[in-house]
Amino acid sequence: MSKHIAFIDVETTGMSSDNSEVIELGVMLGEFENNRISRVTEEYCEFQEPFFSIPSIITNITGITDRMVRGRVLDMDKILSMLRKADGIVAHNATFDRGFVSKLLPETLDMNWYCSVRQIRWKDYGFENGKLQQLLKVHQIEVDHAHRALDDAKNLAKLLNFSHPTLAEDATYISYLMNKNPLKKPMKLQN
Known about the structure:
Blueprint: E1 3-12, E2 22-33, E3 36-47, H1 56-62, H2 66-69, H3 76-84, E4 88-91, H4 94-104, E5 113-115, H5 132-138, H6 149-160, H7 173-178
Parallel strand pairs: 1-4, 4-5
Antiparallel strand pairs: 1-2, 2-3
């Protein structure tokens, strides 16, 4: 029986969900069977206009400008509908993405989140670090638009479909990750 995994990424105006905003959100829902993502079942990506101008450093990293986001809003119902279909939500540095997504959609705090940075020990597999763009390069995954929400989410799914010689036979990074316990709820939200 197959499961569904949501790969999610946000681009933001800064590093803290306490004082920064989402300017782009991308989510890809994939079918998970036989230890890998076998097909994409749904995708969503949209900009959101922040309250303040996008800092130039963010525009330099993402290419996202104030003009691109002007008048744009995220479809929260669509995002939540996709995430509710998922047996797990995967983000590369899930603490960061979860902080922003949960501000927009508090319902996501009770969902099963997995972190492809902290829950996969990339250095143990011989990689220099767990940075997404570096891992994509080493795995020869072509990147059209780095630091763009849907591209990063889709490329993460491609990366996690790879296996490593030290993993069990037929295992992939995503099957390894899905055998982990989901991340705990943030402490300030636990009752």
